[in-house]
Design goal:
- It is built from 17 helices and 7 strands.
- With about 425 residues, it is an alpha+beta fold.
- The protein folds into 2 domains: about 15-260, Orthogonal Bundle (Endonuclease III, domain 1), CATH 1.10.340; about 270-420, Nucleoside Triphosphate Pyrophosphohydrolase (Alpha-Beta Complex).
- The strands form 2 sheets. It has a 4-stranded mixed sheet, sandwiched between helices.
- It is elongated and about 80 Å long.
- The model is unreliable at about 1-15, about 170-185 and about 190-200 (pLDDT under 50).
- It binds iron/sulfur cluster.
- Iron/sulfur cluster (SF4) binds near residues 234, 246, 247, 250 and 258.
- Iron/sulfur cluster (SF4) binds near residues 235 and 239.
Amino acid sequence: MPDIPAGVTIPVFDLHPPELSHRLMTWFFRNRRELPWREEHDPYRVWISEVMLQQTRCETAAHYYRRWMTRFPTLESLAGSDQEDVLKAWEGMGYYSRARNLHRSARIICENWGGAFPDTEERIRSLPGVGEYTAAAVLSIAFAKPLGVVDGNVLRVVSRLLAVGGPAERSPAGRRSADQGHGGRRSADKDQGGSRQTSLAALKRLARAFVEASFLDFHPGWINQAWMELGALICLPKPVCDQCPLSYSCRAYREDRIQEFPPGPVSRPLPVRAESLLLLLPALHSQRTLQAVKDWLTGTREHKTVDPASLGALLRRHDLPLLLVRRAGRGLLGGLWELPNFPERNEELANRVASLAIKILLDTGQEVRHRYSHFEIRFRLLVAQFRKQQDLDSWTEQRWVLPSDLVSYPRPKVHIEAMRRFGLIEK
Ligand code: SF4
């Protein structure tokens, strides 16, 4: 424990900002991680990195950032690209609305403002998907505007330093739905509903004021990054207080109440959606191919074991296409390509697809699963065939695609896993 005289309490903000900031910045310049965007002050690059870092681990974001900058090195190159190329570059990172918003925003900046990146809070926040967090991060790092950035890491650090925002200050309802914020920049631009909103919003305001009070003569972009880095490396959910440059003034540490701040995550089981996903074959094909599929089905039934991967091998050998469908451009996974899927299972599914002239050939009994932030999807894998080809109106587009061409389409993670399971693409 630091050497604090008995009976001394440190009121909020009585933390000697000059010493606090100098200690923080000394620690930061010695210990910060090398990241591809770290030395960047170009607003386009800062913006891309900040959007990628939301909901994505730093190492993963670094990989995608390098690839993105090769593919879209400038705002103009992003604005001039097709949405499908943008989604493909984003494939695997999830939360695809981020990619669609980047693309739309780049077009707005180029078409309306001559390609000049906005340098005011009002203008930058008018762009799709840009909230308080992203605006403050870009404006402080790229334009040295004195705006504090508060992500989950900063919230945790400030909450502990000041010993505020813990259970004692919350109503029972607020306590139940406390912040999930151990995940870095998670939910940085959005408060999540309910009664928790008030106390979390108050804590965010306090944290922002606290960070802004620490700027002094330092570049706001650097000091913002220093606070975030302290939360990412030292003031972790399980903090490493003996390496913390600010332990001398940390109230939660002094009072041995670290685990009270910020309030812990509430684990509620995610709702599960049990749905069906089809490897859908065409109605008409060469006799030889159809016979091969028939033999595979007969063999599968006789042996009473299903190896979906061997079906993919067969499709590849015979150049047999399968149906790929495209989601509408907005909403979750909007604009991505996927295997046809339906919310029903069993008899309900059979009835639904029968009305679309689809026949279920085989239920593999296998599932692929994926957890989104608000639900878990479980797709049962089935093999099916059109009796008579027709359009499936739940999707905006549909295409017959050879297995070897699947990789060129931007696809959700769970569908990539299903394609692997069916042996359509490599492991
Ligand atoms: S002393 Fe510990 S709890 Fe306090 S800010 Fe430092 S790492 Fe976080």
